[in-house]
């Protein structure tokens, strides 16, 4: 039985993780961590330090905020606790530093998305990128999302840039008119990324490739947070067999 602690258990994603873990027959939630508190049939602590002092668990799942995730991992990883992280926004250098703080045999697994469809979207984008001179990413998330662009949008931009090995000739931010800066999006390795935030979305991403006389759109939509749960459970089940830093749910695909 895998013993799990859930950071951010009072939030929307955290509560969905709690339900998914409780429904699985090979794992259990032994505690939650959330300064807001929450009414569950297991203890909920205000901090990871309080949780590690009071409970023993194998895996920490973190769906909190960019401003607090590093602090959570700075406690859990040196203690030898495997971590499954869905919070995006940490700089790559900080992620590597955190992973290095863990003893041998401890895994930091961090993923820009936990939906299988979004992972496949990224893989398809990487395959298409060398054949199209232009690429842009559009992402639409709920109004309460704390970071922009999303990790799910940054990753296909990075993969596309790596796969094609050249930069677009399309006009960039130098063409933005005064007072409308940002119209061409944020450049991620030379690929423009555009972020929309609105109630009604959960997590939607689209990569659009273009060449003379044609476009190719690769799109993924999530309507419900339940779409993340198979990926979260896969991460929880897989980290015990890994050590060090693992990035991307595709790392655990057969």
Quick recap:
The chain has 254 residues and is an alpha/beta fold. It is built from seven helices and twelve strands. It starts with a strand and ends in a 7-residue tail after the last strand.
Describe this structure in words.
- The chain has 254 residues and is of the alpha/beta class.
- The chain has two domains: 2-110 and 225-252, 3-Layer(aba) Sandwich (Rossmann fold), CATH 3.40.50.720; 116-222, Dihydrodipicolinate Reductase, domain 2 (2-Layer Sandwich), CATH 3.30.360.10.
- Helices cover 30% and strands 26% of the residues.
- The chain contains seven helices and twelve strands.
- The chain has helices at residues 12-23, 48-54, 66-76, 92-100, 116-128, 151-164, 229-238, and strands spanning 2-7, 27-33, 44-45, 59-62, 82-85, 107-110, 134-141, 186-188, 191-197, 203-211, 214-222, 244-247.
- It has a seven-stranded parallel β-sheet, sandwiched between helices. Strands 8-9-7-10-11 form a five-stranded mixed β-sheet.
- Helix 1 packs across helix 7 (229-238) and helix 5 (116-128) packs parallel to helix 6.
- The longest helix is centred in the middle third of the chain and has 14 residues, at 151-164.
- The radius of gyration is 19 Å and the shape is elongated.
- The protein starts with a strand and ends in a 7-residue tail after the last strand.
- The model has no long low-confidence stretch (mean pLDDT 93).
